[in-house]
Amino acid sequence: MSANQASGETGGATPGTSAGDISAHVQARILAEALPHLIRYDEQTVVIKFGGNAMGDEALADAFAKDIVYLKLSGINPVVVHGGGPQIGNMLKKLQIKSEFVQGLRVTDKPTVEIVEMVLAGAINKEIVSAINRQGGKAVGISGKDANLMRAKRITHLPDPESNLMKAVDIGYVGDPEEVNPYIVEMLSKSDLIPVIAPIAYGRDGQTLNVNADTFASALAARIKAMRLLLLTDVAGVLDKDKNLISHLTVADARRLIREGVITGGMIPKIEGCIEVVEAGVEGVAIIDGRVPHCVLLELFTEHGVGTLVGPPREAAKRP
Fold it and tell me: Is the pLDDT of residue 187 over 90?
């Protein structure tokens, strides 16, 4: 992590200040804070779900790409899984294909799933790959179809929002992860390559299925026992009753806040997914604000991070 990238968040200098303008004491403080985390994450895998407004902002996308390259150069193995809901919506609108949602999932018929694959595995995937490569990385774009990385099953039932009982639904070619074969990801990560993955998978019948990016990233992180899963969102993290950021939640804390109604709406399934991933063996899952430049570096290499960590206390989780 360079002094220039960290300085704006540590109070040592204003954003945009060159490394030469930062005092030696400030540079030393930045390095002293970052080095223990660099040692801790050395040769570990971090899965990062990239999505939200950051994908549509050129400056934020470039900052994200730099973060990923810095992770790889520092000895960490980043694995990127990306979404693309807004871009899919825009393409469907251009083609005059009607799109509907059921409990946050896009109803995906045969024409729609073809557009979804074209946008996710084509345009978006290659944009992210190009951004990382422009920053000096060696990114490779794949999807869940490649080397049978992920098999999925069609979603036929969803919990009713009112009763929470499972209810039959027909949302088309939308799937949940069923089987993960991480061979291709592991082979790429062991080299100097950075996998960038579109959340498309095969069903058992060979049909293409659209998989939610958060769900895809969570299943992959759990299967490969990643040290961290980072979910980039358009919110600061989990907020308490007074709308203040909660920097850390144990699994018990998270379940309690759901029962008490502090965690509500769309954050409930996200937190429930975080709990499942932690219980599957991932050390911690961080929900971070992708609108913050260099949020990935700030979350991993600073003491307090920039979002909400679900898992062990930050002090225990980050102690080298």
Answer: yes
